[in-house]
Amino acid sequence: MNREQVSRVLQQHGALMVLGALVVVGSLAFDSFATPGNAASVVVSSSFLAIIAIGMTFVIISGGIDLSVGSLFVLGGVLAAYGSQYGTPAALLLPLAVCGVVGLLQGLVIARTGMAPFIVTLAGLLGVRGLMLAISDEGATTYLVEDPAFAALGQGEVLGLSYPVYITAALALAAMVLLQRTGFGQNVYAVGGNEQAAALMGVPVNRTKVQVYVLSGLLAGLAGALNAARLSSGVTILGIGLELDAIAAVVIGGTLLTGGAGGITGTVAGVLLLGVIQSLINQVGNLTSAFQQVVSGAFLAFVVVAQRLLSKAQRLT
Known about the structure:
Blueprint: H1 3-29, H2 36-61, H3 69-83, H4 88-113, H5 117-135, H6 148-155, E1 157-158, E2 161-162, H7 163-181, H8 183-193, H9 195-200, H10 205-231, H11 242-252, H12 264-284, H13 290-316
Antiparallel strand pairs: 1-2
Membrane topology: Multi-pass membrane protein
Protein name: ABC transporter permease
Transmembrane segments: 12-30, 42-60, 67-84, 90-111, 118-136, 161-179, 210-229, 235-257, 290-310
């Protein structure tokens, strides 16, 4: 294996390697770490972030960014809890429809005006958060999940794992196929790699941009709906900073912030890595949860620098 191949493997699978190393270290250092209960806790708590991060992966590979997903996650939860009084279909379709429309509007603005995705989705973050506060009377009203069937979607278990874990796994597999085996996936890579060249090759650049933001909005809304089912209510104080966690997981997983490279496997590994770091901090006992943000931030900075160095190494070979 030559230098270029080593660099590519490290960039694509580095998060998975670090995840494996941390699991081994944690298992040796703490007796309660490598238990089925702790493993299930990490996987279940990571499933909602993973759904959001899957959508974020498509956006970042296309060369964009979506800062609105945290607010869409909360809005999706509130709308799902509100819609549950009309049954499970309404509890799922209402947040998907609203969050999908928000993604559509953001995608259209970005594609048609050429505005920076950072600015457009930052406006979306603020606007969606305001919409959620308006619906919930500025957070004073908490809608409860009234449909037992919908609540079971978030609380039911199979083999010790709740349904959202299996839904996340199915979405990750579908996203892998969509990204690697379809024309849409190839368009996403092409647009992120070189937008001008993609346009010259006949790739529908604007349509691809709109599609990735719609997908991101839909998945953020779905994650919020499943979380509401799990908690039996549309909690309004969640989701703050969740967009940063999703971006961190995607980048840690090997997706380049500049676009054109990345994958779902790395993103899932990045999400689990953040979950394992939090679990290890909890195992220590005398560290606060805020320390997890410090560790995650430091690790993210390290990964970005490493990606830069690996990219240079590939260009030199």
